[in-house]
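As promised in the previous annual report, we have extended the structural survey to additional targets. Below is the entry for DUF1003 domain-containing protein.
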Amino acid sequence: MTSPRPRLDQPREVRRRFSRPRYDPEIFGEASERIARFLGTARFLVYMTVFVTLWLSWNFLAPAAWRFDPYPFIFLTLMLSLQASYAAPLILLAQNRQDDRDRVQYEQDRRQAERTMADTEYLTREIAGLRMALGEVATRDFLRSELQQLLKELEGARGEEPGGPDGRGRPQADSATG
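The corresponding structure token record, generated without further manual editing, is:
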């Protein structure tokens, strides 16, 4: 049997002679976040200002033979451009990772809010049910008001009856006892 002829309507398989370097995206992302965090600090600005000041001072004040980057400072511009070209993607990568974390946090917060809302609605229904059930049960305030009303009625009934021998509505103490 012979090997099948390659078809012209399908692309060939890519054969790689060299393997690509592998890296862990999580470690690279963490490193980029640390760098981006440092680039956003006052310390970085101070270091960069000191570096540029020393560079300019050296190339202005040093003897002509020792100057390595004369007046237009092309090499300094190249270095700053290189630094910026690496800083921008690292900062964007760090922002994307932060956006991903924020998105996950937002989703968790949304789920928690839904659970809280469901719990609140459940408790509201339970409280409403308890209030309806309590409408049929005598409460403390209701009993207190009924007892006070009965007490007033009893006191009123005593006042209408002829009180006892002393006329105050209380039975007189036995004269033999005291």
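The CA atoms of residues 7 and 13 lie 12 Å apart. The longest helix spans residues 74-134. These points will be discussed at the next consortium meeting with the crystallography subgroup.
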